Amino acid sequence: MERLDRKLGLLSSLPMIVILLIAFLAPVVVVALFSIMPPKVFSLANTPDFSSYSVFFSQGYYKSLLWSLGMAFASTVILLVICWPLAYGMAKVFGRFTLVLTIAIVMSLFVSENIRLFGWVLTLMKGGLIEGHLRTWTGMSFDSPLYGVPVIVFGLVYVYLPFMLFPLAQGIAMVPDDARQAAADLGATRWQVFTQIDIPLAAPGIVVGSLLSFVLAAGAVAESKILGGQAVIAIADDVETAFTFGQNWPLGSALSMILICIIGGLALFGVSRIDLDAIMGRKR
C-alpha cells in the first residue's frame, strides 16, 4: 500500500517536475554553460574557458557581492526585529483585525516596486515632500538621506517586509499558549519564555521568513539604483550591465552562477534545519 501511494504521489507530481525542469533547471544549465565560455561570445559552440570567474576577483566584482550580501543581511536582521511584535500581534492578539491588516499589507504589493520607491525619492529628496513642508512651516531644512547605504537598506526593509512578516506570523501561531503558560507557572521569566519557548517553537517561521527576505534582498537592484543612486553597486546591477551594456554574456553568467551557488547553499542549509511537515500541518 505504501509503495502504491509513492507511485501515485510520483505520478501526480510529474507535471510540476516537468514545469520545474523546463522553467527553472534548463535556464540555470544554460547560464552555467555560458559561464565557462570565452569572453564576448554569444554561442555555446566554443572551447570552455574559465576566465570569467577569474575576472570576478581581478576586477573587483567580489566587492559588489559583499555589499549585496551585507545589505541583505542587515535588512533581514532589521526585518526580524521589527516584524516580530507585529507578527505576534497578528498571531495572538489582534483577532479579526488580523485580516484587515493582512489585506492592507498585501494590497501594497499590487503597486509596482519601482513606483513605491520613486514615491520615497519624492518624499526624501531635497525640497521634497518632507523637507519642503518643513522648510515652509518652520524655516528648517535637512540634508536628504538619499544616495547612501542606509537608505538602500531602508528600501530593502520597506519592500520585503511582507516576506518576513507572514512566515513569522505563521511560525508564532505554531507556539502553543499552554506551553508559554506552563513555563510561566513554573517560574520562568518573560525573557526565558521568549528565548526557550517562543523562539525555538517559532523557528520554522523565522527561518522561512529570513530566507525569503535574504534571498530577495541579495538579488535586488532597484533599491540601489533608485534610492542609492548607485552609491553602492549591487551584484545584480553588475549582472545586468554585463548582459546588456557590456554584451559579455559569459561574464554575466559567471557572476550569476556565483550568486546562485552562494544563495542556493544558504537556502538549502536553512531548509534542512526546519520541519517542513510541521509548517504544512502534517503529522508524522
Write the layout of secondary structure elements.
Elements: H1 2-34, H2 51-58, H3 61-93, H4 97-108, H5 113-124, H6 129-138, H7 149-173, H8 177-185, H9 190-201, H10 203-218, H11 222-227, H12 235-243, H13 249-272, H14 276-279
Descriptive keywords:
284 residues, mainly alpha, 75% helix
**Could you state the CATH homologous superfamily?**
MetI-like
The run of helices and strands is: HHHHHHHHHHHHHH
Beta-strand share of residues: under 5%
Radius of gyration: 23 Å
Q: Roughly how much helix do the residues carry, as a percent range?
A: over 70%
Quick overview:
The chain is 75% helix and 0% strand. The chain has 14 helices and no strands. The mean pLDDT is 84.
Care to describe what's here?
It is a single chain. With 284 residues, the chain is mainly alpha-helical. It has one domain: MetI-like (MetI-like fold, Orthogonal Bundle), CATH 1.10.3720. The chain is built from 14 helices and no strands. The chain has helices spanning 2-34, 51-58, 61-93, 97-108, 113-124, 129-138, 149-173, 177-185, 190-201, 203-218, 222-227, 235-243, 249-272, 276-279. The protein is globular, with a radius of gyration of 23 Å.
